[in-house]
Amino acid sequence: MIETDNKILHFDPGYAGYFQNQRIPLDELKKKADIVFVSHCHKDHLQQEALNRIIKQDTVIVAPIKCASRINSKNLRIVQPGDSLEFTEIGITVVNAYNTQEGHSTRKVHHKGDFVGYLINLKGKSLYFAGDTDLIPEMKDLGKVDIAFLPIGGTFVMDIEEAVAAVCVIDPNITFPMHQSNENLQIFKSAVKSKSGSRVVTLEVGDKTTV
Question: Where are the domains of the chain?
Answer without folding.
Answer: 1-79, 80-201
